[in-house]
């Protein structure tokens, strides 16, 4: 049975992107952290994206075409390219990456039933799409990467209208000050 996991970088004050839309402060280029992310996502066979997150992540489709990418970039690109992608968008035309389908609407009940029947994990990526999944109560785990910055404003990691009861399962710190947390979502 697959798990639906919400995981991405967030600032300590709870933003996935700052007021300018940037998340360059996330620290993802730290090689040890990136290797950890690659290892964590090996169990993921499908990524669920909204349009903006898909456009950001589509970088990984061509990352290996750059001359001499660092090993941590090569590893993550290979992991990302091996997974399926489902993009939820009413405006996106044809996908620009392999193994990608576009769905026009997000149906939480259909997603829950589909994920439950899989033999691999699925991530819901991007705070806007994740908010829909969290509101519907279909997320099994939340795995934030807490970056050691405060950005003051922007796109929130957590939806403000969704109370969650979380159980800490695991945690890990990195030399750049980032902290990874793994929580199970308790269902009441």
Characterize the structure shown:
The protein is of the alpha/beta class and 188 residues long. It has six helices and twelve strands. The strands form two sheets. Strands 1, 2, 4, 5, 6, 7, 8, 9, 11 and 12 form a ten-stranded mixed sheet that branches. A hairpin with a 5-residue loop joins strand 11 and strand 12. Helix 1 packs parallel to helix 4.
Layout: helices, strands, pairs:
Layout: E1 4-6, E2 9-11, E3 15-18, H1 31-41, E4 44-50, H2 51-57, H3 59-62, H4 71-82, E5 84-88, E6 100-103, H5 108-116, E7 121-125, H6 127-136, E8 141-142, E9 145-147, E10 154-156, E11 165-173, E12 179-186
Parallel strand pairs: 1-7, 1-8, 2-9, 4-5, 4-7, 5-6
Antiparallel strand pairs: 3-10, 8-12, 9-12, 11-12
Which CATH class is shown? Alpha Beta
What name goes with the CATH superfamily? Dihydrofolate Reductase, subunit A
CATH topology annotation: Dihydrofolate Reductase, subunit A
Largest sheet: 10 strands, mixed
What is the SS-derived class? alpha/beta
Topology order in helix (H) and strand (E) letters: EEEHEHHHEEHEHEEEEE
Please work out how many helical segments DSSP would assign: 6
Shape: globular
> Averaged pLDDT, please?
94
At CATH's second level, what is the architecture? 3-Layer(aba) Sandwich
Number of domains: 1
Radius of gyration: 16 Å
Instruction: Work out the number of β strands.
Output: 12
Q: Give the % helix.
A: 25-40%
The termini sit apart by 20 Å
Query: Would you identify the regions where 5 or more consecutive residues have pLDDT less than 50?
Result: none
What percentage of amino acids are in beta strands?
25-35%
């Amino acid at each position: 049975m697959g798990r639906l996991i919400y995981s991405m970088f967030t600032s300590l004050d709870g933003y996935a992107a700052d007021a300018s839309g940037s998340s360059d402060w996330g620290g993802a280029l730290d090689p040890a952290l990136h290797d950890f992310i690659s290892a964590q996502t090996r169990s993921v066979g499908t990524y669920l994206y909204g349009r903006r997150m898909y456009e950001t992540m589509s970088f990984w489709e061509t990352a290996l075409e750059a001359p001499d990418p660092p090993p941590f970039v090569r590893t993550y690109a290979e992991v990302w390219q091996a997974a399926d992608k489902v993009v939820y968008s009413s405006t996106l035309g044809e996908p620009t990456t392999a193994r990608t389908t576009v769905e026009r609407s997000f149906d939480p009940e259909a997603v829950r039933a589909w994920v439950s029947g899989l033999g691999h994990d699925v991530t819901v990526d991007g705070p806007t799409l994740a908010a829909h999944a969290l509101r519907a109560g279909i997320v099994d785990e939340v795995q934030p990467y807490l970056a050691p910055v405060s950005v003051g404003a922007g796109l929130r990691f957590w939806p403000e209208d969704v109370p969650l009861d979380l159980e800490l399962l695991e945690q890990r710190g990195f030399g750049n000050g980032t902290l990874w947390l793994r929580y199970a979502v308790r269902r009441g």
